[in-house]
Amino acid sequence: MNFGFLFGLLLGSILLSPQEPKAHGLDGMNVEETLEQADGLYRSGRIEEALGLYKAVLAEDAGCGQALRMAGYILYQAYDFTEAEAFFLAHLERFGAQGYPLLNLGNIAFQRFEFSRALDYYQQALALDPEDAILLRNIELTKARIERVWRVAVLKKRATLIFRAGIVLGLVLLVSIFLLEVRFALRPARG
Known about the structure:
By secondary structure, the chain is an all-alpha fold. It is built from 8 helices and no strands. Helix 2 packs antiparallel against helix 3.
């Protein structure tokens, strides 16, 4: 009997037989099951555990939109703007312009006082959904903040100019007083 032939048949039948869904190294679960578990943990307030599962999904499927959005959102809520921004940018890169990541990128820029960038993200999102009330409000607030920053900058510039002018006037006054005192000091005494 030819054992090589039998071994080849056995190996071929194993390789060609229908496979079970791959577990993706997520404790025996596939990506969809892990996302469902992560969503459940998030809804029940177990945020850090949910984030861990979303990141585990991303380790297996870096382009999973739901995991990118939720990980970014959780990190945004935790004020970890740098990592949250990375997840939202990855989502945009993978799926193109979508309102949710653009809104959150705008919010991150706003929190960093990068108002022009925030306005740009909000306007991109608004182009996708022109009647979104949240975006309209965020754009209004951001424009008001930009206007306020501009007004404060103008006032600071004016105050600086006034301060410098005050210094110059003060110096002129001091020199004038000094010259008057010198003049009176050099005058002959009347007797």
